[in-house]
């Protein structure tokens, strides 16, 4: 079948990559993806469109596919694209000359400015021009020119080509479809073989869904013999400036993708006529997956006449059938590459053996008798029997051949071809070998985080020496048989002592299930190694005791005990067989007591200790000790206090101040005993001096702001003569910030 050139162009767009599958050649994206296309200056990619010319005079540019396409078997096609012609323009000539899309036999070496729309002289192929300049009247216009032939007119301008049957020029569409403007025009070009003349194409062109061309075109000149070409776009400005742009280019063509190109089948001849008979349409599904969507035409190789009755084709010699496959959906190229190779041969069925698994030592297996390839001829029917006598008599046919349960043995099959040839074969049933597997036991030391469990490598169990097997592990026999709830990580399986089941599968896919017993080896600890408490500077001995296979202390020692160890945390690895128990032991420093507070009343102090381990002992010199925490008859001034607990470690000590005692003041202004003054204690932290009356009401408080002094007044008024009580509190400057409180009384004598 001789197809039209423009359809050849479409097939190229879909077959450009060299494949026979459906394709769409596109210029889309942002920026536009030009892979497979040649961009010819001054054309360039500008975001989501191809700018064929800049908004300047004397510009020409183009873009074309960079490989040719052969459209021999295409008879329908469609091209879609958007174009825009905009810019400032030139007063004398308007906006450029226009743009063209084309399919040319040879890629242009140069492009033509002006009215040629970039198409070079004597270019051959299909050319569609969108012309904006009337070269006769030098006026603006919007015309579509179609030429299917050779661009051989003066000035290379297809506007002036009027080859009968090969050209068409629309009326000026400037009033209804102006080509110049800021908006894109959407173009659809479709074509199909003219049934009235298979050498012609019916070309339809729509602009913004309005049909502007719809007629049959005949190839003229050298286009009549054209079988391949290059698809592209071009534009030119001549003496006028304009920007010519295209985008959203989509070229559709389909060549049927075949599942395979060659099918071979042998047939037994009719014993009477010597002819084989075949329904060629039964091979359709071997070429495409959905034959109903395609039209098939069959030819005997070397004969141009289609086979009239392919459903009942007869042949008496080996024959090659050429198959043409056509897509029924509309946009297509035929695929003529299918071949059916038919051969004649007397029919015989072949004895076969099939083997299945008797999994886990079952006495029977399930056989699919239909898998025994006793004949390669398509369309045969097979019947299965337990004995040859049953086959010959046609009795006791096996009714479940796809799931036949049997011990090893032989069954018989009667094979009948579509042509009525009959053959007999026997099918031997056998068991596939099972892997040799035994039960096993795995022992593993406990894990520190969970001493009742161990980390097992199930794959290390010595259950088989067979090679090429796979193992899967399960927590129960039922799961192993069903293949459910498989242990996900058998090389690091954490488990208590238990049993698990391993499914061992050979290369044959047959399996045997065996048991693996898991045993957790528990930790073995020393019963004599215990924590100790010592003074911070003392040393002691740690002893793990006898009975272990090895010792490794954190100190590096490998003996059962270590001596002279100071305060700290230690561990020892105790070996029992291949297992190691890490036992931690602490040598703790005895906690020192803390002098929390000291209460001072006149010449008596009371020491309040906390921490450490009672009972405490107290001292004023660190040598003479007493159990009482009260010291009396103390002198005024700085005094040291020592405290130690039952561990008799280095005592803790503080230094306190017993303030000077003043028991009477006479605030009469004679500068003798006019006030109480404790500025001598100002170096103490948080020092506060507070005065109370005999009812416990606070009358005065002297802190740093009042310089720790009291002149016998309250609220600026003299206090009545009488006895008042006061307290002085401060924080000692030691590491424990010992709280100290001094209580006293004072007689205030005011002149009445």
Automatic annotation (TrEMBL):
Q: Where in the cell is it found?
A: Membrane
User: Source species, please?
Assistant: Chryseobacterium aquaeductus
A cellular component term from Gene Ontology for this protein is:
membrane
Write down what this protein is called: L-type lectin-like domain-containing protein
Query: Where's the L-type lectin-like domain?
Result: 34-253
According to the UniProt entry, where is the signal peptide?
1-22
Q: Name one GO biological process term.
A: carbohydrate metabolic process
Top-level lineage group:
Bacteria
